[in-house]
């Protein structure tokens, strides 16, 4: 009887699949592979900008594009972890800048070795993530409110600590500038910061897809209460997610010093928006429980490709910001459409 029922269900599912319209089939494909739509968008952007500016796809331009994408791509990893749990982190840029200024100031004015300054800066960013997580899990405050508050707090601390002054690369130890140093692969010039970003994606991607902790992250984002009733330590997972995100922001601070050639408290003013945009465009649902890091990487490349391509075309910054905002709205609309898939 069971075999007959199973066969009948499979036949019904196959019949329903055959009756789907082409649009419904696309919807099902995107539900299972949310990174497909951003990949298609990235390819379209490359073709469009190549037609508009033939120098866009030159090795030199592609090398610059990848270098410019490194910081946003790194921040977007931490943001992805948070959004997978149905949260959001508005303090990413502030944590990164605070970490960067601590690294640079301790090394320049405190006379600390570069390694010690680096470790303290990354530890501070990790502690900032831990604070965010503790406020969310222990006091049960909404992530939006928590990180909106800590955005102002960390920004103010960074300005007060640094005195609002920038520190140039020639006043910093080589270690802090190291990720801005480059190497060539044929005509492409890449930096060690790009290598570090790739390693972050490989490690975090493996953890999310191949470990119990990664499965718990998705479970908490899908339904925290159901996950708790199933034995998942939901609050501990959330606390760990924010802490790991903070650690990644600290590494992003190191990448930013090398990329910018300086440590300045006014660096990356659009880091929060850019990281969220990369994650959402990459197919990670703002409602949690669905998304892949490969999509986030593609999303980060889309954000920077849009900025870089429009810049090469001579488009004003205001129009570039407008284009990014439109992308966010379209990405969220597509996500809502995908979530309504009938399975």
How does this model look, in words?
The protein has 343 residues and is mainly alpha-helical. Helix content is 74%, strand content 3%. It has 15 helices and four strands. The strands form two sheets. A two-stranded antiparallel sheet has the order 1-4. Helix 3 (36-52) packs parallel to helix 14 (293-312), helix 4 runs parallel beside helix 9 (192-210) and helix 5 runs antiparallel to helix 6. The longest helix has 27 residues, at 234-260. It starts with a helix and ends with a helix.
List the helices and strands and how they pair.
Elements (H helix, E strand, L loop, with lengths): L1 H17 L3 H11 L3 H17 L6 H26 L7 H17 L5 H24 L5 H20 L4 E2 L5 H4 L4 E4 L2 E4 H19 L1 H11 L1 H6 L4 H27 L1 E2 L7 H11 L11 H20 L4 H23 L4
Shape: globular
Q: Pick out the low-confidence regions.
A: none
Oligomer: single chain
Residue share in β-strands: under 5%
Q: SS-based structural class?
A: mainly alpha
What Rg do the Cα atoms give? 22 Å
The largest β sheet comes out as: 2 strands, antiparallel
Mean pLDDT: 87
* Lateral arrangement of strands in the main beta sheet: 1-4
N→C terminal distance? 24 Å
Which bin fits the share of residues in helices? over 70%
Number of strands: 4
Contiguous helical run count: 15
Helix and strand sequence: HHHHHHHEHEEHHHHEHHH
